[in-house]
Backbone:
């Protein structure tokens, strides 16, 4: 891995959390895999095998260049090309807020994978709330877009996601809330800018 790639990983503390949760030798599906950086990192450090799904042409090419098995496709179309329980983990990193059919995609993740991991920006973060109170839509490191060019369609808070899990037969196995790369344990819905969840289908 190049120095530039290590620097990019360092700027994404959620990826380090994901890597810590993934068991060595697991089968992993990374949805919206971008240039394949996470899968390459998991292959090198955890010995995983897996696939990425990505829609953008240039990112598919970059994933292939990174040695990642990648399938070009639109997540909104579902994961019908994958068998039930064919992966140990299905990952959706900083993409949850940009999908339109949230419940369907999370359901498909738990059909295809034994466990799922998602990361998303916390809209309840105090800096985001402060910008809304000042009459503006939030812009931050986690939400870097202006209101008029954002790909985000479903922003949520940590409490929103936990309530969703409770009403959709999803059991949360682990949760990590971060701010500037550091864990937040006190008032996480207010003080945390980024959330990482590992979960499974409830029995």
Residues:
């Amino acid at each position: 891995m190049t120095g530039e790639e290590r620097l990019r990983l360092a700027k994404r503390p959620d990826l380090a959390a994901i890597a810590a949760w993934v068991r060595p030798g697991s089968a992993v599906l990374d949805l919206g895999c971008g240039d394949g950086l996470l899968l390459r990192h998991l292959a090198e450090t955890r010995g995983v095998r897996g696939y990425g799904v990505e829609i953008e042409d240039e990112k598919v090419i970059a994933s292939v260049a990174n040695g990642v098995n990648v399938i070009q496709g639109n997540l909104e179309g579902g994961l019908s090309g994958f068998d039930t329980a064919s992966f140990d983990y299905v990952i959706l990193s900083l993409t949850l807020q940009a999908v339109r059919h949230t419940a369907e995609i999370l359901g498909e993740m738990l059909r295809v994978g034994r466990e799922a991991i998602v990361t998303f920006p916390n809209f309840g973060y105090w800096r985001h709330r402060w910008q809304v109170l000042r009459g503006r839509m939030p812009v931050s490191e986690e939400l870097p877009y202006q209101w008029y060019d954002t790909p985000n369609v479903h922003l949520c808070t940590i409490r929103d996601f936990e309530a969703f899990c409770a009403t959709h037969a999803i059991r949360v196995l682990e949760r990590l809330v971060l701010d500037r790369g550091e864990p937040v344990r006190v008032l996480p819905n207010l003080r945390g800018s980024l959330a990482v969840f590992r979960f499974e289908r409830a029995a």
